[in-house]
Write a structure and sequence with these properties.
heterodimer, A: 365 residues, alpha/beta, Rossmann fold, 3 domains, six-stranded mixed β-sheet, three-stranded antiparallel β-sheet, 33% helix, extended, B: 496 residues, alpha+beta, 21 helices, 10 strands, globular
Chain lengths: 365, 496
């Protein structure tokens, strides 16, 4: 079909493979739009061909509904004038989808491999669930409602039901019993430990990038591990464990000792997440400035001796900032040129988040 | 693609009979059953099975497919304005939906055939579109996809700069206009007090000399276009330095824009009319008792108003019903308008019974602008809870501005006129005597979105090749935007 060609060409433009100059027309929107309960809104990419048109903010329009002058109206109003032709006129499509679907879409878009959890499959727990109805069973599990229904049906269909005297006498064949099923619950347990540098050089923009990035990593890992646990560590010259909200809102100042975070992370893992049962994913985000070469050497030792042999993956994301030198990434590259479980990624700006996620999750670990 | 099942064919025959029975008059209508994927494809192509290759169709397709797959929306019906009329039914829809769609489609077909704004459209557009596709594919083969696509993108950026009313007016061509302007001109002769002296004061060779001089002057000063032209695409076709294939591509884009224009001009009426008839045919003739819930569900889905939104289906059907009732009861004319007594008005019924006749007349003669202008009443706005919203800069949100009837009507008419797009016209092709193009924006109190304006100018410049200028209003100031291919300049214009 010819539409496939057109569609392929559109995808190519969106991915920036062709027509670089078109990038500016692609409406990105926020990758994580509104988040309501378990649903997120994601915008479907749209390229707007520039035309002479009125500014939306000036335009106004006619709507219908309740309310008195001065009341706000919900969301952006739809354009009522419609497009020529038969196609719908909406420009930015927002899709409500569940987190699971979102993860699948992410996986599909980035061509991410499924994760192979480590750990022993025999750790699966078997649970008994009473969810079915069966014609045989012990009297103690007799299901009154279905039994009565069967009997009533039999009465009506054989024509002996008398509405004036609605007495139903069940026979043996009417009885129904609760039955159980055995549900196997995989017990692959996983924990993600996010570490973030909150020293003075990490600005709002950098933190926003970390927020987005960790949102996507969480979404993807949750798809593979039920009951994913997350822990958060912030550090400047000293590290402390915080909750999620604090993690994303704290702004400290001062120097940076990356080893402090790694040490704390090590303590957390040793205390709560024994290697043989847990899939462990430490992620560290920083602008790449460390206080001293000696501290960097300490970090390398921790990585080599403790983290890398044990974790599923250790992710280091370096967010570009005005003040950061980005030295730490180079040090890591030099120290571990071909280490499988260490994944390094450089995030220059918002647009690079997707490719960085691909760096982190592209190995299927 | 498949023919109708015997059951559907039987229903089609019945519905067609009922539609004709109500007085609807349509071209032969051919229904085809297609899958959801095909319907998305056709919809992306504006209803046609074949269009020229372009990424934006792929984009539309992706949007439609995604919203279908995520269960956000689905296309119930699609009908193309051609003779015969083609309409599509989606495979796997419930029978009640198919019936509804068929009834709806007959409403559209009647509208296409009889509404005067569709009179000049090419009814063999299916062939024309396929022909356009072939031509553009040939250019792609010869010049490469990137070159052709880039040019198409540039043309599309100017696609809305057509004169929507021009197909309905027999216009003199630019050449005729020039000739006329020339012949009208008076030749500068000396004033003569007495007639018998004329041939001595203005001897024939002097007259001839003056005439030649005048013509020369005219030609050198000649203004192109002689009067401002709103069909910017046509103007570019004739006057921009285009290669043959570029000119052809531009003409294709322009033809297609003109083909779709009447559908945009009659959106409210067309959908209202079709909905009016599907509801009538279904509820009075075709529907089985068992289907009432499903019908009501589908119908209300189409008529649903997003909170505070504006749905052309709903406004259209309600207006048609309102007109029918008013003309049935004689609620129009001088006496009705001058009556102030609410009680008398609410009981007003002259039992004229002219409603049906009137709605047919309306569907023949009106477009959305005239429709709203003539038939939107204060009463109707109150009943349907209309309001005007504006963006409140301080609060940073859209707010209900007023429920005042004249304001509602004004706003509605404004957003329908020229599809709510700024009106732009070509003023001068030799601006500053330097071969620069000058466009003017007929400012109506609303400024254009600046980034879009600049990008569009960039595309225009690429086609015109000499610098381009646009006179418009930016930040409450009349300005001339100049783009020479490298950089933009803005000059504040003195109020003239």
């Amino acid at each position: 079909m010819a539409i496939r060609e057109d569609h392929g060409r559109f995808r190519d433009i969106i991915r920036g493979r062709i027509k670089e100059n078109f990038k500016k027309y692609v409406s990105h929107g926020e990758m994580v739009g509104k988040r309501e309960n378990d649903f997120v809104k994601i915008p479907v990419p749209y390229i707007d061909i520039p035309r002479f048109k009125y500014g939306p903010k000036q335009r106004g329009g006619v709507g219908q509904g309740q309310g008195s002058p001065g009341d706000p109206i919900d969301g952006d109003p739809q354009d009522g004038s419609g497009e020529a032709g038969n196609s719908p006129g909406q420009h930015q499509l927002e899709v409500d989808i569940s987190m699971e679907e979102l993860a699948d879409i992410l996986g599909e878009e980035l061509e991410l491999p499924r994760i192979q959890p480590k750990g022993r499959p025999q750790a699966d727990a078997v649970k008994t669930k009473y969810s079915g109805i069966a014609p045989v069973g012990p009297e103690g599990l007799r299901h009154f409602k279905s039994s009565y229904k069967r009997a009533l049906k039999r009465y009506i269909s054989s024509g002996i039901y008398d509405p004036k005297e609605p007495v139903i006498v069940p026979v043996r064949a009417d009885f129904r019993y609760r039955s159980f099923k055995q549900v196997v619950q995989p017990q692959a347990k996983a924990v993600v430990i996010y570490m973030m540098d909150v020293s003075g050089s990490m600005g709002e923009e950098q933190k926003e990038i970390v927020r987005l990035e960790s949102f996507w990593i969480n979404t993807w890992l949750k798809r593979h591990y039920r009951g994913l646990e997350t822990r958060f560590v912030i550090h400047d010259a000293a590290a402390k464990e915080v909750d999620e909200k604090t993690f994303f809102s704290t702004s400290e100042s001062g120097g940076t000792l990356i080893s402090s975070a790694y040490k704390l992370c090590q303590q957390i893992i040793e205390a709560d997440y024994p290697w043989n049962e847990w899939n462990v994913y430490p992620f560290h985000f920083s602008d790449g400035d460390n206080w001293s070469g000696e501290d960097t050497r300490l970090c390398m030792r921790l990585l080599r001796e403790f983290f890398l042999p044990n974790v599923n993956m250790f992710g280091y994301g370096q967010v570009e900032s005005k003040y950061g030198s980005g030295q730490f990434l180079k040090d890591l590259e030099r120290e571990f040129p071909s280490e499988e479980s260490l994944v390094l990624s450089k995030i220059e700006n918002r647009e690079k988040i997707l490719s960085s996620i691909k760096d982190f999750l592209g190995k299927g670990k | 693609m498949a023919n109708l099942t015997p059951e559907l064919a039987a229903w089609k025959a019945k519905i067609e009979k009922h539609a004709s029975g109500f007085g609807l008059d349509f071209f032969e209508t051919i229904f085809e059953i297609i899958t959801y994927d095909q319907i998305n494809q056709f919809a992306a192509y504006g209803g046609f099975p074949v269009r020229y290759p372009h990424w934006r169709f792929g984009m539309e397709y992706e949007q439609l497919s995604k919203s279908y797959e995520y269960g956000l929306s689905k296309i119930y019906e699609m009908v193309i304005n051609t003779d015969p009329c083609y309409a599509y039914l989606m495979e796997g829809n419930r029978m009640v939906d198919q019936k509804l769609v068929m009834a709806h489609v007959y409403g559209h077909c009647d509208f296409f055939k009889n509404n005067q704004w569709f009179a000049p459209t090419n009814r063999k557009m299916m062939d024309a579109m396929a022909n356009h596709a072939t031509r553009i594919r040939r250019y792609i083969d010869r010049y490469g996809v990137d070159v052709v696509e880039d040019f198409v993108d540039k043309c599309l950026s100017l696609e809305n700069l057509i004169d929507r009313y021009s197909p309905y007016i027999r216009k003199r061509t630019e050449k005729e206009r020039q000739e006329e302007a020339r012949s009208k001109d008076q030749v500068g002769l000396l004033q003569v007090g007495r007639e018998y002296m004329d041939e001595y004061i203005n001897p024939p060779d002097f007259v001839q000399f003056q005439r030649d001089k005048r013509r020369e002057e005219m030609e050198s000063r000649e203004k192109v276009p002689s009067e401002p032209q709103r069909d910017v695409l046509e103007f570019l076709m004739h006057f921009a330095p285009l290669k043959n294939w570029q000119q052809d591509v531009l003409s294709i884009i322009r033809d297609e824009a003109y083909y779709f224009a009447p559908q945009g001009m009659t959106k409210i009426m067309n959908e209202g009319w079709a909905s009016y008839w599907h509801s009538k045919i279904m509820t009075e003739k075709v529907m089985k008792d068992s289907e009432i819930i499903d019908f009501a569900d589908a119908h209300s889905g189409t008529m649903a108003m997003a909170p505070n939104g504006f749905n052309p289906y709903k406004v259209g059907i309600e207006l048609f019903r309102d007109i029918e009732e008013r003309w049935n009861k004689g609620r129009f004319g001088k006496e009705w308008n001058e009556c102030d007594d609410i009680r008398v008005k609410s009981d007003w019924d002259l039992k004229l019974g002219k409603g049906r006749e009137k709605v047919f007349e309306v569907r023949r003669n009106y477009n959305d602008v005239t429709f709203i202008d003539e038939f939107l009443t204060e009463d109707f706005c109150v009943r349907n809870k209309f309001f005007v919203y504006k963006f409140n800069k301080r609060a940073g949100r859209y707010e209900i501005d007023t429920r005042d009837f004249p304001m509602i009507k004004k706003q509605l008419l404004f957003q329908l006129t020229n599809f709510g797009q700024p009106i732009i016209q070509v003023e001068n092709a030799n601006f500053e005597n330097r071969g620069e193009l000058l466009l003017t924006h007929l400012y109506e109190g609303i400024e254009m979105q600046p980034d879009y304006m600049r990008e569009t100018l960039r595309n225009l410049q690429a086609i015109w090749s000499r610098p381009v200028n646009l006179a418009t209003v930016v930040d409450n100031q009349a300005r001339l935007i100049h783009f020479d291919g490298k950089e933009f300049k803005e000059v504040v214009l003195q109020a003239s």
